[in-house]
Amino acid sequence: MKGVNELRGRGLALALALLALALAGCASYEHKPHREDASQVETPDYVLRFVESDDEGWFWNRKRADEAIDLVERSARQMDTFVLVFVHGWHHSARCCDGNVEGFKATLTELRKELSQPMYANARSGLRSNLKVSSEFRIVGIYMGWRGRSLPGLLDYGTFWGRKSAAERVGENDMREFFVRLDQVYRTHQKSREHATFLGLVTLGHSFGGQAVLRSVSAIFEQQLEHLSRAPGYLRDSSPTSPPKEQQEQFHGLGDLVILVNPAVEASAYQRINALGRGITYPDSQTPVLVTFSADNDKPRHTLFRLGRIAGEYLGGKPRKKDRVEKTMERNALGFYGEVGDQVTHRLKPVDPDDRLVARTLEHKPEAACSQGGRKEECSCEWYEWKENLARKSQPDTLPAEVATADELGALLPRVKQYDFAQRTVFDDVELVPLAGATPFQPTFVATVSEELIEGHNGVFSGPFLRFLASYIGFIEAKQYLLTAEKKWR
Q: CA 24 to CA 79: how far, in whole Å?
């Protein structure tokens, strides 16, 4: 029996060695920049720039990052500018016709439609010290690419640990500095009295891209909160301290808003932000700073992520954790940890529970610079809509989506400036509902999402979800316009 076990052990070792050799042989698979000759896209709805990182988190070409920041600065001097940064997840990259690239383009178009409504033009120009400024505005998209796919076909599903580690490195290195520099442009513009234009900045990360974003911004957020909070956010203390009501603090975050959608990151990575943020009372000028949306039916993060984390503990030689809270936070993805109120404080769902998502394919014309062997590819992405056409069938009952007259605008302005975006909010037949643990003007929170809005892990390019998000972002931006203009021109 001993000899048989010995042979089995040698066979297993040989199999693992062969697997390691096979993986090493593919170590350079797709490890290259995809956008050296196709780094810019210009359309009537938006302008799009690509910035790419290698597996160590070093930008392939720093010129692309400089060009993106320079575009934001120049655009903001000329007209109102709204910047949406997107970091993709596992199995994707910045290559031409990638499904995430095409989905991001559709998202930029949805944002353009939302911000074109009279409400936002009036808010942008309503408090500009009687300056006559054009209502024209520009949408700038920045797609942050990295090697989300490192093996061909189905083999890529065996790269969980490698891609997770790569996403961490991507978030820790050049991307972090890029976000800081982009935020500096945003802050400088907000404070300047020379510019009568507004600059908005929102960052969106999905899957392992959500982990990269959180890794980039967490230290920035934690440092801000540590200065604002009287009580420490030590991780082993799972009960947040009750905030002092007499002291109100403003939390600025990075840009206007950071959004994580189905982030493939452990709950423990968010806990310090969560604990520190719960120990602060916020003024009515506070807007959301970090919002996480976690789909109920995201099976890869609910099950496979947990199994991968457990396997990683044994393969990585980590010490066994005796503390139940620590062990659970380390093993479960953000959005699937604990009871309601621990980290999850909100719920996103359709107003009509009978709504159902169906998939359809969106086709886009290939970019002029994208070709393979002289032949243009067909570009498409999977897009989800409700089975029946329910777009804008009813007016939202918390804030109007559109204002037609100056009188209506005048009545709305005080409400927008003091609106609590952490309370129940309804846009486009989708409602955000606070649960146990939610607090007034809460700047960081986690919301679970109904399967009628996001289909599993990758079905995030959903019309109902993104239309809600576009309205939500738009009204947060409107509040920022008004508050910033007051500071500049009063």
A: 50
